[in-house]
Amino acid sequence: MREKTAGYGLLTLSVLLAVILLLLEKAPPIAAGLMLLTALVAADWRQLAATLRAQPAYTVLAAFLVWLLLSSAWSIAGAEGLERALRIALMIAAAALLPAAFAALPVSSRTLARTGIVASFLLMIGLLFVETLFDMQILRAARYLFNGEVYGQAIPPLAAQEPGLHYSTNGYLANRLTHLASVTGIILLPFAGWLWHAQRKTGALAVFALGCVAIALSPAQTPLLAMAGGLVIAGITLIPAVSRSKLTAPALAALLAAAVIAAPFMAERLYASVGDSVKSADPSIIHRLAIWDNAAALIAREPVTGYGIEASRIIGRGGVDLPVLGADSAIRFEALPLHPHNAAIQIWLELGGIGALLYAVLLFILTQMIWRQAQGLLLRASLMGGWASAVAMLHLSYGVWQFWWIATLGMIVAMLLILVRQEGSS
Question: Where do transmembrane segments lie in this chain (predicted)?
Answer without folding.
Answer: 7-24, 30-45, 57-79, 85-105, 112-130, 177-195, 202-218, 224-242, 249-267, 345-365, 377-396, 402-420
